[in-house]
Amino acid sequence: MNPKLSMVLPLPQLKPENNDEYENRITFRLYIEKLLNQKVGRYLEIISGIASLASVGIYIVSTYFDSVEWLATLDIVVCSLYLTEYLLKLFAAQHRLQYIFSDFAIIELLTVFPLFTIQSVGSWNYLQRLINISRILRVFRIVRMINKIQSLSDTENGGVMRQIYVIFSTVTTIITVTAGVLYAFESPKRQELIANDPNKGCSNQVDRCNFHEMIYFTIVTLSTVGYGDVIPQSEEGRVCVIVLIIIVLVVIPKQMNELIRLMGLQSVYARSFYKPNHEIPHIIICGYVSVASLKNFCNELFHQDHGGQDKNAIILKPSIPNTEMEDFLHNERYEMFLIYLQGNPMIERDLRRAAVTQAKACVILTNKQIVDSHSADHKNILIGLLIKKFVNHLTGCNIRLCMQLIKPESKMHYKQSLGVKQITDQIIVVEEFKMNLLAKSCFCPGIITLLGNLVTSAGEQKESLDSEWLTQYTDGMGHEIYRTDLSSKFQGKTFSEVAAIVYNEFSGILFGLELDFGKQAIITLNPGVFVIQNQYKVHAYIICQDKKVADLVATYDMTTEEIANYHFSLSQPNSDKDKLNEEEENQVEDLLLSGKDQLDDQYIIEQDYLLLNEPVSLMDATSIFLLEQPEINNHIVVCGIHPSIYYFLLPLRAKYLKEIQYVVILAPEKPTDIWEYINKFPKVKFVQGSPLISEDLQRASIHCADKAVIFAQSSDANKTESEDFLDQMHDAESIFIYKAIKKINPSIQIMIELVSSSNIQFLLDKDYKYQNDFKYELTPLQASGEVYISAMIDTLTCQAYYNPHIVTILQQILTGMRQSNPITKEIVKNLEIKDSNLYQVPVPEDYLNKTFGELFNYLSIERHLIPLGLYRLAKAVDNKHPYVYTNPPAETTLTPRDKVFVLAHQLPADLSGIPFDANFDQKQVNNKEVENNKALNFLLEKLKQQTSSQNGANRVVKQKNDKTVIFQGQQIKQTKNIEAENMNLNAAAMQVLDQVNEQISIVKDQINDIKSSLAQKEDEIVEKCRRAIRYELGTVIY
């Protein structure tokens, strides 16, 4: 036969004659195996372990009595249970012979031994010793049960703690079993010696054997002390001691070496745990915890403005702390309050080590410059969901999360994955907040500093400052947003009246209310004429210097008894405050989880923002030279393309804006993938080039741009947390772009994002005087709101822990966010509450050289506007750069160089300039302006050529700056006037000047034609022009 063929042919299978009986037996065996592997098998092992524990305990106690008659009956019952379990496992085993010779199967057989020999004890006394040994061997069953229970409760319990348990269980088992075996041999031997001794054991100095004496002897032998006061009398006992010593010499050192190896692999942070204290609350910080993020978060968390109560922060990270982290953990300011645990927040054992069930909140940080932002968000969402599920499973309560996410769409993913009706977590969306803030600063300069001051606790400035502007700026830094109750004495008054009272009495700015309607809370900023009533609980949001001022507002005009009752009500604990009532939650429909809010958001975008009917292709929006398009000036240049640029353009296209500026994106690569999200925004251009190259910047008309925005570059996704020192080099490209732009256009205002706050020193002027201790927050660029530091998000996250609604408040300030929930929308409509936006307006002419207090009372009471602070331009006092003055004192004198931050539903026309008219013929104005500019440029070039050919002639040509007059929101540039006073010009130059003047006359005629079409509004336009001229004259004088 061919050997190759024999390898291919199948071997004949031997089957029993009755196939049905064979299949039934196989099916029944699989069924038994399935039961043993599921709950039935676990319950059987638990019952067997409990029976073993009880029988061993009874046996040890029975050794102190002469005889226990019912012990044999107990052995029969217990051994019958053992035999049943053994037979079931043997029948269900796939390899029965292998199971029979396994370690635990042999031990099980030994423990079943008394069942077959209990009746033969009287005929052979040595058999009783074997039965006693089999009774003590049941300890192995107990150990096996404990091991399985532990493996079910904690599958990740490896490492050092697991090995310590193994050593402990091994030593305990050896001591117990050895003591039992010794007792089985020594007790009969000692009884024999005592019986043969005429002096009842006194001659041999032998006492009756006790079980605890055998345990003592075993421990002394294991510890190699060997006192010699107890010695084995039987030969079997001596053999047992020899076997004991051999086992200990082999097993224990091996296990100790494994323990030492594991301890060498794990740091002390991986073995430590946090012991909670009910009097000291603690929070857990996990996610991407870098040293820079942790510094900013802890500076705010442990600041004295948040009260003197102690609190602990537990840092839970998978890696061991690097050198920089070690130094920070041992900072004398935080050393007592920071606990670092090496662990994974996705593992339940590590969550227990951090006492997450008793934590006040859990903070999840993120890497704000990571390339793969979606993966980072998904990781944070999974961590948050697991922590909430773990806490809810063990306690039935809900833990509050303060979580950072990068992408705005990730917020929706989290809410949909959470699967509850009411969200109590604070979600900080990094890119949405950053983009909205940078966009708002383009038409409201200084807002970065204003909001930064409001969310950062600064405290008192101890150092003396040598400049007035710096003193005012640092004074404004000390003001924050505080939430407090509103005194019942304010009922019946309008919000504007209450704001005036709070400012005059307490020097605090009341700018918002929180109306509590049971499960529904509504945040509204400057509701204006809204009358405060007692139908609902009202909380106030106040900008003031410390919490004491805010508390005074809560007890305004109260009697001593009323104040005592108020403080007593605050001291009453509310046990249900942090618990979610499922029945109430199910009654409240949250449309956000069902997806209906997306339609509302789409409607809000179409209603509140300017969008084109048809999208613009990237090819049509791409320009090679913007110089060929004179209508694009006073624009915003965006250096680089950002994945979330949609949220930057959105606030710049709000309908409440009086002017829509062009946005020019300058990037090396075309934004093909991103363009589909922004192709409906009007006045968006793209120029392909590098912002590091001067020629490309000039092609983007940077010399005539109004603002420039520089985004920080994304970091490498593979960057490890031990490379935090590279963050300082992360801003290198942004700094070079800043320098390149300033070299071409020194007067342009640039908003730049920096990762490391220390890099702001590379952007300062050469004449800047450095202090001994450099503080970036005291630099002119930071004071003017031109620098956005990424660390602001970490400070905001900490503020969200103290004030759950701070994120909503800032979002309303930045975007004027409408209520999208239909329930809150209906409530707002019934209460006639109107949304407010943040504006920046010049000081009214009638209040120049008056005080800020007078202006506050006028705007709040008569105009229903709430001023938040001042934006003081250069030379307002002794400043060379603009700066923000948050909540200035009432006696602060106003100058023409001041602008006011105000919250208003709709800005009055006399404060904002000529209002924007969407029906104004923009195309006609732009066409005429283009023609005029081309003619002027041609004649000026000709004049330059003519005059440069004359040798020895001294000529001075003065050209006035373009004055912009706004007609219904559109800009019409006044013509260029050329003065030729005190000049020695020859005949050729005079001829060119005549041609220029002739062209100027033509331009004036064209402007008069346009003005004639606006004859009905001529008086209003003239009045606004006069105000603008007076303002400019005041600016020059002061």
UniProtKB/TrEMBL annotation:
Domain RCK N-terminal per the UniProt entry, residue ranges: 280-428, 633-776
Ranges that cross the membrane: 43-64, 70-88, 100-120, 164-185, 239-256
Membrane topology: Multi-pass membrane protein
Keyword set, alphabetical order: Coiled coil, Ion channel, Ion transport, Membrane, Potassium, Potassium channel, Potassium transport, Transmembrane, Transmembrane helix, Transport
Keyword Repressor: no
Gene Ontology cellular component list: membrane
Localization in the cell: Membrane
MF-aspect GO terms: potassium channel activity
Domain of life: Eukaryota
Major site of localization recorded for this protein: membrane
Coiled-coil blocks: 993-1020
Pfam families according to UniProt: BK_channel_a, Ion_trans, Slo-like_RCK
GO biological process, one term: potassium ion transmembrane transport
Name of the protein in question: BK channel
